[in-house]
Design goal:
Mean pLDDT: 85
Structural class: alpha+beta
Low-confidence stretches: none
Number of helices: 5
Strand content: 25-35%
Helix content: 10-25%
Order of helices and strands: EEHEEHHHEEEEEEEH
Radius of gyration: 32 Å
Distance between the termini: 69 Å
Largest sheet: 7 strands, antiparallel
Shape: rod-shaped
């Protein structure tokens, strides 16, 4: 028999054997539309039963078969709002670009080195000094110092306004990258929550202390 299959405002003329089952018709519709059988609702006087033949459900020549359903791509397109897609693209672009060139960091780095920045020693790994690390900026360009209170297992982040006392165990990750043109200093972030939005950025960390800070905050075991 000749059938008219209608799906998504598209019409398909199909020749099909009356002794084929509904399931076989779904396979045929799949080959026409790309719509997987599991995602098809096929209607002919109600929902088309998969196990019965077209003859049994009295399909006649010229019958109209309505198909409802979305392809996987349609479903994904609906489930990925444009904003989320744009954010992913942005995140990808940001990954390619060195951190120190990104706008949010540029505005702090363009202020130049703090006047009381600590001296750096390239190519050497040193243990944390017993005094606080000072002479660094945070993301708003304010002065910041880091104090490692090992006996309390806390990191104190001090600014002019206040001191935040963070348990080391609450810091999820530490990332750092050399500052372009000043490779003996790093910009470093402490991740305080589940996402990158919770990064606390510190700029102009002397390179010789970078590994010691990571080891101290994350615990050596993270590295092996």
């Amino acid at each position: 028999v000749e059938l008219k299959v209608i799906w998504n405002k598209n019409k398909y003329d199909v020749k099909f054997c009356l002794d084929s089952t509904g399931a076989e018709l779904k396979q045929k519709i799949h080959s026409l539309t790309g719509l997987p059988p599991a995602m098809q609702k096929v209607m002919f006087k109600g929902l088309l039963p998969e196990e019965k033949t077209l003859r049994e459900i009295k399909v006649t020549n010229g019958a109209k078969i309505m198909v409802v359903g979305s392809t996987i791509n349609d479903v994904l397109a609906v489930n990925t709002p444009k904003e989320a897609a744009q954010q992913e693209v942005k995140a990808e672009e940001n990954k390619k670009e060195p951190l120190c060139r990104q706008k949010q960091h540029r505005k702090v780095l363009d202020k130049g080195k703090p006047d009381d920045v600590m001296p750096s020693v390239k190519g050497v790994q040193e243990r944390l000094p017993t005094v606080p690390l000072s002479g660094m900026y945070n993301k708003s360009g304010g002065k910041v110092r880091l104090t490692f209170k090992l006996e309390q297992d806390q990191l104190w982040i001090g600014t002019k306004e206040r001191t935040e006392k963070l348990p080391m165990g609450s810091i999820k990750n530490v990332v750092s990258e050399p500052i372009e043109g000043h490779e003996d200093y790093h910009m470093m972030a402490f991740q305080l929550g589940p996402t990158e939005a919770s990064y606390y950025w510190v700029y102009w960390v002397p390179t010789q202390y970078v590994d010691a800070i990571k080891d101290t905050v994350l615990g050596k075991w993270q590295y092996f």
